[in-house]
Design brief:
This protein is of the alpha/beta class. It has eleven helices and ten strands. Strand 6, helix 7 and strand 7 form a beta-alpha-beta unit.
């Protein structure tokens, strides 16, 4: 291909509004000289590095960021990202885990392994179905925000970026967005898990943990809007899980609803005293289940 390509659109994603936007952007670029030099003339604007190889995702995310005055720089692979951070330290990084040359986990570990970039806040943007081991890696590398590509919307992404940068300044701000509320279900019984998901349907973004240790790691990374907690979890039980959550200044605001078969006299008081915000008995009543979740999500 000869000449300079300012934008690339995949046919399947080139909706009219985006196509017209990129045509205008390209015509404007033709009127000014092109340079590979990264802009440094806006010290008051926060700079975000987007590490992403998918052109449709680049166009979408870059547009979102620039609409609220962030400087959005792009690296289309691991080597470009390493070259970038060698001379420019961004305020934050958005990282796709599924990169063509080196996967995102390796990129993340290298970024964290350098003193100059070790504390840069990172948001993970990925279509990958993450395993408990993946969440452990993210937690170990101090990743506090994650967005699934299928759930990206402008308000949600910008809220998470704002929270990400505020957290890095030790000013945590709970994210609020117009996207689907996120619920982390900590439950080791597959039948109960299937029942909860069937009742919740597609109205929420659902994450699953089958033991308390994995659940705690996922909370650190995901910062869900609400947690459904089985009190009899393996590895770390629900009482210790909620104790950890409510003693953590960055997590204590997340509502925790115990969903448990412990229905003997005094059990509810014991569960509430442990730190849970509410209590639902098993087997669940679907109407009551949804009602309580809705009430707590409204705050």
């Amino acid at each position: 291909m000869s000449g300079n390509a300012f934008s690339v659109l995949e046919k399947s994603t080139a909706i009219p509004a985006i196509l017209l936007q990129e045509i205008r952007r390209s015509l404007q670029n033709l009127e000014k000289p092109q340079t590979a030099k990264i802009s440094t003339d806006a010290p008051d604007r926060q700079r975000i590095l987007l590490i992403e190889d998918n052109e449709a995702a680049i166009i979408q995310v870059k547009s979102f960021l620039e609409s609220v005055n962030y400087i959005a720089d792009v690296a289309r692979g691991a080597q470009e990202a390493f070259a970038y951070v060698a001379h420019t330290i961004p305020d934050g990084i958005i990282l796709d885990l599924m990169m063509p040359d080196i996967d995102g986990f390796a990129v993340l570990e290298k970024i964290r392994g350098s003193a100059a970039t070790a504390k840069i806040p990172v948001l993970i943007l990925t279509a990958k179905d993450l395993t408990p081991e993946d969440f452990q890696k993210l937690s170990y590398n101090n990743v506090k925000q994650l967005v699934q590509k299928g759930d990206v919307d402008r308000k949600s992404l910008l809220d998470k970026i704002s929270t990400l940068l505020a957290d890095n300044a030790d000013k945590p701000i709970p994210a609020k967005s117009t996207s689907k509320p996120s619920i982390l279900i900590m439950e080791d019984n597959p039948d109960n898990m299937a029942t909860f998901k069937a009742v919740l349907q597609n109205n929420y973004q659902i994450f699953e943990a089958t033991d308390g240790e994995t659940g705690l790691q996922m909370v650190e990374t995901l910062l869900p809007d609400l947690i459904l907690l089985d009190m009899a979890l393996p590895r770390i039980d629900g009482f210790k899980v909620v104790g950890n959550l409510k003693s953590n200044p960055k997590l204590h605001h997340i509502p925790v609803i115990a969903v448990t078969a412990r229905v003997m006299k005094g059990d509810q008081e014991k569960i509430i005293d442990a730190g849970c915000d509410d209590y639902i008995a098993k087997p669940i009543d679907p109407e009551n289940f949804i009602q309580k979740i809705t009430e707590w999500l409204k705050g």
